[in-house]
Amino acid sequence: MAFNDDSFIREVNEELRSDQFRTAWQRFGRYVIALAAVIVVGTAGERIYAYWQNSQASASGDAFLAATDLAKANKPDEALGALEKLEKDGFASYPVLARMRAAALKAEKGDAKGAIADFSAIAKDNAIPAAIQDVAHLRAAWLMVDTGTYEQVSAEAETLTATGNPMRHSAREVLGLTAYRLGDYKRARDWFQAIADDPETPRNIGRRAQMLLDVIAASGKAA
Question: Where do the DSSP E strands lie in 100-192?
Answer without folding.
Answer: none
